[in-house]
Amino acid sequence: MNIISEAVVKILMILFINLTIVAYLVLVERKVSAYIQNRIGPNRVGPWGLLQPLADIIKLFFKEDIVPKAVNKFIHSLAPIISVVVAFSTFAVIPFGDKITIFGTTYKLVIADVNVGVLIILALTSLGVYGITLSGWASNNKYSLLGGLRSAAQMISYELSLGISLIGVLMMTESLRLTQIVEFQNGYILGFIPKWNIFLQPLGFIIFLVASFAETNRLPFDLPEAETELVGGYHVEYTGMKFGLFFLAEYAAMITASAFIVTIYLGGWQFPFVEYFNLSPFMLSLLQIGAFAFKVWLVLLFFIVIRWTIPRFRYDQLMNIGWKVMLPASIANVILTAFLIYFNLL
What we know:
Elements: H1 3-36, H2 52-62, H3 73-89, E1 99-102, E2 105-108, H4 117-138, H5 142-173, H6 178-184, E3 188-189, E4 193-194, H7 197-200, H8 202-215, H9 227-230, H10 240-265, H11 281-307, H12 315-342
């Protein structure tokens, strides 16, 4: 298999897996929210409601696409496409395993193992704001425009903290390649604690996690669509599959953010004490993929539980946290990391 066909197979596989996860992540969120609120949740379509995502997709496909007369039709249609493309393309540089050998041929378990993977993810996630901002502006609706402006201000504010919180990890690993960052986390602290960056950079992890909530517009940071104030926010003038694309983009961004958190701070595909199991290379590769998937699932579950636990911030509180708490804390984390590295304590 040549390089191009191998990349195409990986892309199609990741796209299919992510689309499937998105569909059932919505069902999981509805089930978890029902459990938290002492309700039953979807249970009518298929056994235990497992076919509910299929019914929702069919419903969205057949809903009428209503476009208001005064909108900018080209930008109005382009905006959800931007959000979806950015959300899915970011996954291209995230390694979901080390290597796997099939029929004598070894494949890297990443679509593009580039040496600036971290910068590519930060650049692509920065582009995501254009989909939301343009949708708000193109809709020619004051509620939509306010949602778009809120999103732009929110993402700019929290991207600073998110980017600076990563500097501590980059200083320790001395690399922007995500596979090398994962390999750096192989080993143990004091002989039994996994050498994951969550233990070496706890403050950076907390800052990055909170900023990820803001970047993905999830509660308690969903001010761009706050229905109590803005009716529906930036996507209030969208119906049918255009609205479905925004929905898809939000959950795809959640998956990418969770995978990035796992890669940077939770050891990626690393599985503690795996060296004590006498596994074949193929079984080891499967275990690494399973470990990565399980960690991503736990982070996604955390995203969902937080949404149905913590109330939405006021907008002034959101800005205060971003500029007066997160940004100084991320800068302090960089200074502390530099101090520890200088004195060989890290």
